[in-house]
Amino acid sequence: xxxxxxxxxxxxxxxxxxxxxxxxxxxxxxxxxxxxxxxxxxxxxxxxxxxxxxxxxxxxxxxxxxxxxxxxxxxxxxxxxxxxxxxxxxxxxxxxxxxxxxxxxxxxxxxxx
Amino acid sequence: xxxxxxxxxxxxxxxxxxxxxxxxxxxxxxxxxxxxxxxxxxxxxxxxxxxxxxxxxxxxxxxxxxxxxxxxxxxxxxxxxxxxxxxxxxxxxxxxxxxxxxxxxxxxx
Lengths: 113, 109
Description:
The structure holds 2 protein chains of 2 kinds.
Chain A: E1 4-7, E2 10-13, E3 19-25, E4 31-37, E5 44-51, E6 54-57, E7 65-66, E8 76-78, E9 87-94, E10 103-104, E11 108-112
Parallel strand pairs in A: 2-11
Antiparallel strand pairs in A: 1-3, 3-8, 4-5, 4-9, 5-6, 7-8, 9-10, 9-11
Chain B: E1 3-5, E2 9-13, E3 18-25, E4 32-37, E5 44-49, E6 53-57, E7 60-65, E8 70-75, E9 84-91, E10 97-99, E11 103-108
Parallel strand pairs in B: 2-11
Antiparallel strand pairs in B: 1-3, 3-8, 4-5, 4-9, 6-7, 7-8, 9-10, 9-11
C-alpha cells in the first residue's frame, strides 16, 4: 500500500531533550516536506527536500533540523525542544511538479513541557 | 505579500449544498488545491485547478477564477461524514504550498 509512515503518533517530552520524528515513504517520491499545524493557523512549512541530499528551509525552520540521506526517509530533528514547538506535525511527499498532490503521514502530536 | 483567506467555520444541513470560498494572493500562479482534513487526521487531496472554470468530481466540485484570485469548493448532497476542515492551498514562486487556515464545516442532521 502506498503510504507515508510517520512515527511516533504521540510524543510528550521535556524542554531540551533531543528528539527525532521519523518519516518514510514507499512511493519513490522525490519531494518530501515537514509541516506544523497549530489552531487557527494554516499548515506552515518547516523544511522541504527536492531530492536526496537537497534540503531547504520553509517558513518556520528555527529550532528544527532535517536530513535526506535516502530517498525514502526524511527525519525531523529537534535538538533542544521548547514549549513553543508543541504542535501537530505532518510529513508529506509527492512526485516532482508543483501540480502534484501531497500524500501526508498520519501526524505526530508533540507536547513539550 | 502572499496570502490565502477562507472562512473559519460554516454550518450546513445534511442533504443540502454548501460552497466554501477561498481567495488567494500569490506571486505568480501555479494552480490551486483543495484538501479535506477530518479532526485528528491528515489532510487528503480533493482537487487541483489550474484553468478557469468548474471541475466536477462526484459530489464535490471546485471552481477557479484566476482573474479574481478566487476559488470555491462546492459540496452537494451533504453527508455527516463531510464534517471536516477544508484547506485551500496554492504554490508560491518557489513552488511551495501556502495554506489557508482551513474552513471547519459542521453538518447538522
